[in-house]
Amino acid sequence: MRINAVEKASGCGRHTIRFYEAEGLIDAPRRDSNNYRDYAPEVVDELAFIRTAQDIGFTLAEIRSIKESQRSSALDCVGGAELVDAKISEITRRITQLRQMKTLLEQMRADLVVSAVQHQLDVPVRLQRYGQAAGVTVTA
């Protein structure tokens, strides 16, 4: 496959594909007689794996480690389990932080609606319920 076909099939740009190639995340393609890169069709699945792994929080270094283990057939199940366990712990910590931030922002929104009412400002209908939840009568 030429790089433009890989781009279309994977949704990755050519610079990203070449970067992953240079970083050893995907195998270097063979070269045609005209020196064009000829990627194996499997590279599309490899790129999907890399993007999915990044989306769920794996770093490129972690992905590289996984890919190298796969290539060498030396997949370390214990090491892999530890990597996944660490990622789960990190995600759990981030969820806790996000919940705390959400609570803080919800309180801030309610305080701002109450302040708007106290200053006799018009409060949009979609925000009125937050002032009412804080015990303030809100009118548009």
Summarize the structure in words.
The chain is 68% helix and 3% strand. The chain is an all-alpha fold and 140 residues long. The protein has two domains: 57 residues, Multidrug-efflux Transporter Regulator, Chain: A, Domain 2 (Orthogonal Bundle); 53 residues, no CATH class. A hairpin with a 5-residue loop joins strand 1 and strand 2. The protein is elongated and about 75 Å long. The protein starts with a helix and ends in a 7-residue tail after the last helix. Keywords: DNA-binding, Transcription, Transcription regulation. InterPro entries: DNA-bd_dom_put_sf, MerR-type_HTH_dom, MerR_fam. This is MerR family transcriptional regulator. It comes from Antrihabitans spumae.
Radius of gyration: 25 Å
Helix coverage percent of residues? 55-70%
Q: Helices and strands, in N-to-C order?
A: HHEEHHHH
Biggest sheet record = 2 strands, antiparallel
Distance between the termini: 61 Å
Assign an overall shape: elongated
Q: Say how many strands there are.
A: 2
Average pLDDT:
88
Give the neighbour order of strands across the main sheet: 1-2
Supply the helix-strand structural class. Answer: mainly alpha
Low-confidence segments? none
- Oligomeric state, counting identical vs distinct chains: single chain
CATH topology of the largest domain: Multidrug-efflux Transporter Regulator, Chain: A, Domain 2
Keywords: DNA-binding, Transcription, Transcription regulation
Protein name: MerR family transcriptional regulator
Domain HTH merR-type: 1-69
Organism: Antrihabitans spumae
